[in-house]
Amino acid sequence: MSLPFVMLLAAIALAPLFFAEWWGKHYPKVCAGLGLIVVLYYVFALQASPRVLHTAMEYFSFIALIGSLFVVSGGIHINIKGEATPFTNLIFLAVGALVANVLGTTGASMLLIRPWVRMNKYRVTAHHIVFFIFIVSNVGGCLTPVGDPPLFLGYLHGVDFWWVAQHGWFIWLTALAVLLAMFYFIDARNYARAPKQLREDMTHHEEWRFDGLVNVVFLAVILGAVFINKPPFLREFLMIAAAIGSYFTTQKQVHESNHFTLHPIKEVAILFIGIFATMMPALDWLAGNAGKFGSPTPGLFFFGSGALSSVLDNAPTYLSFFSALMGATGTTDVPTLLHQHPAAILAVSTGAVFFGANTYIGNGPNFMVKAIADHQKVHTPSFVGYIAKFTLPFMLPMLLIIWLIYFHH
To answer: 3-class SS at 211?
Structure first.
């Protein structure tokens, strides 16, 4: 029953390459059809309607957070003065990584992707988009539970709010330094090829400007709602209300300046409803068999949680490996687990967060960033091109460095 999930991944990866026009028209039908196969199997063959309902609630919470942050950030226009030199871009990405721990990777991505594209408009290309996804949409948010959904689940299950930051900041800093160094080298070459006159003509008239700052209030409502668990759906109601309030109070010229449309979030909502439905058998198999993976070596949990987080939703993957670690160690008390096996917990946490950058579907913001870039006519790699041209030559060496330094022993 994992076959529909594999078929959907294959379609997302290959259809835009070989029959893009057909895919653009019919991908909602593909997602709905494959998802329906799994849902009907769970409801009628397995009599597992509660499992389907639980997945539907997870999807609703996911899309409420992603969608509300998309709408609210689309009402904030940030204009940056001056040409984007490689050093300026490096500082921007580093700041974006810090912001991701406050606004979450989704909030930071939606807030910063548009000014990122604008400041590089005279030379923006694939590596700008992909390294933004690597750093701001994924790796950057590894210090706090607000940063990425897997860490938030850990926080809800008893991991102290600042535990990952206190024990893993050096891992985060190492990963960030490696990726930033790679980006600087590539961007410097790209900058040198850009005509100097074009740079001057397109940037000499610019100035710093922040518009739509009333949306900061709506953004605060969304971030505060993240920590509300009861009563049911109050969190999602507040997020949706904030999005509606933002949409109707934002001035039209701000949306126009951001080239804001609802198309990107519509595309993400449709694709992920198929992903959430079809990935149920894979996640259920993982939950039932993760405890058999062997002794809790950090390397095992780093690559195990990471590899599956590349193609599955990283939040439930994190939770499955967190539970597997408890089973493998015979420890159900979270403070004891943190004290006795800190490296394994860090491996699960960083694996789930870092590996989410390996594909467009590894983390929610990834596809949204691609959709916004595509809408603004920026060249972005295909699903396969993303992995072949960027994940393997850049993310994989960084992940191996992290493993060798921190989890090899």
So the answer is: strand
Q: Are 366 and 356 in contact (CB under 8 A)?
A: yes
Phi, psi of 314 (to 5 degrees): -75, -20
Which range of residues forms the domain containing residue 305? 3-407
Instruction: Tell me how crowded residue 218 is: count the other CB atoms within 10 A of its CB.
Output: 27
The CB-based long-range contact list for 378-381 (8 Å cut-off, 24+ gap) reads 378/117, 378/124, 378/125, 378/128, 378/129, 379/125, 379/126, 380/126, 380/129, 380/130, 381/126, 381/130
Angle at 404 between CA 364 and CA 390, to 5 degrees: 40
Residue corresponding to tokens 């998309």: 70
Tens digit of each residue's pLDDT (9 = 90 or more) over 278-296: 988 887 887 677 666 666 6
Report the alpha-carbon distance of residue 259 to residue 351 in Å, rounded: 35
Both tokens of 348, joined, read 């699960």
According to DSSP, residue 79 is labeled E
* This prediction's pTM: 0.81
d(CA 65, CA 243): 10
**Alpha helix positions (H), 215-363:** 215-225, 234-249, 252-257, 263-278, 280-289, 298-309, 314-329, 334-340, 342-354
162 DSSP assignment: T
Torsion sign (Cα): 291, 337, 311, 29: positive
Total residue count of the chain as it appears in this document: 409
Q: How many domains does the structure of the chain reveal?
A: 1
For residue 147, count other CB atoms closer than 10 A to its CB. 30
pLDDT at 40: 96
b/e map 291-322, b = 16+ CB within 10 Å: eebeebbbbbbbbbbbebbbbbbbbbbbbbbb
DSSP state letter for 378: -
